[in-house]
Design brief:
The protein has 155 residues and is mainly beta. The protein has 2 domains: 5-67, no CATH class; 85-154, RNA polymerase II/Efflux pump adaptor protein, barrel-sandwich hybrid domain (OB fold (Dihydrolipoamide Acetyltransferase, E2P)). Helix content is 8%, strand content 52%. The strands form 3 sheets. The protein has a 7-stranded antiparallel beta sheet with strand order 2-1-7-6-5-4-3. The protein has a 4-stranded antiparallel beta sheet with strand order 8-15-13-10, with no helix packed on it.
C-alpha cells in the first residue's frame, strides 16, 4: 500500500498482494491493469474521495481508501459518538461550501450527508458522525471557510 494509506474491503484492512502493481491504462475511463509481471488482469475503477468500487473479473468490490489523517479523524469521530453531548462539525480543510443537505432542526441519522465542501477542485461530502438533530448551521452555500471553521452543531 502507498505509504500512509489504509485500504479496507468489507470493513477489513487489506494489504496489497506481494509483487502486484496497478497501472491506469485509460485514466478517463478509469481502466487499470493489475500485473505481477507474469499475469495481468483488467479492472474498472469507479469512485472518488475515500469510497471506491473496483470491478475485477465481473465482481464489484467496494473499497475504502483513507490517508493516515483521515483515519485519525474517523477514529476521533467514532470516539465522540459515545458522547451524547453536542458535536461541533468543523472544516478539516479550507474550501467553499457548495451545498447544505440539512436545515436547523433536522433529524439526521449516522452517515447522512450534511453538506458538500469543495477543496482543491474536489467535492467532499461531510456526513453526520452520529444520529442527532442539527441545532445550528454556521455556514451558507457559496461561503468560503477556513480549516477548523465551525460548519454545523449536532445534538
Amino acid at each position: 500500500m502507498t505509504a500512509g494509506l489504509e485500504a479496507r474491503v468489507a470493513g477489513d484492512i487489506v494489504e496489497p498482494a506481494e509483487d502486484w502493481r496497478i497501472t491506469f491504462i485509460d485514466v478517463d475511463r478509469r481502466i487499470a491493469r493489475l500485473s505481477d509481471g507474469t499475469r495481468s488482469l483488467l479492472a474498472a475503477v469507479e469512485g472518488a474521495g475515500d469510497d471506491w468500487v473496483v470491478t475485477l473479473r465481473g465482481r464489484r468490490i467496494r473499497v475504502t481508501v483513507r490517508t493516515w489523517r483521515e483515519r485519525v479523524l474517523a477514529e476521533a469521530e467514532s470516539a465522540a459518538t459515545g458522547s451524547r453531548g453536542p458535536i461541533e462539525i468543523r472544516a478539516t480543510l479550507p474550501g467553499l461550501v457548495v451545498s447544505l443537505s440539512c436545515e436547523e432542526g433536522s433529524e439526521v441519522a449516522e452517515g447522512d450527508p450534511l453538506l458538500t465542501l469543495e477543496a482543491m477542485k474536489m467535492q467532499n461530502e461531510v456526513r453526520a458522525p452520529r444520529a442527532g438533530r442539527v441545532t445550528h448551521r454556521a455556514v451558507s452555500p457559496g461561503e468560503t471557510v477556513a480549516r477548523g471553521a465551525l460548519l454545523l452543531r449536532l445534538e
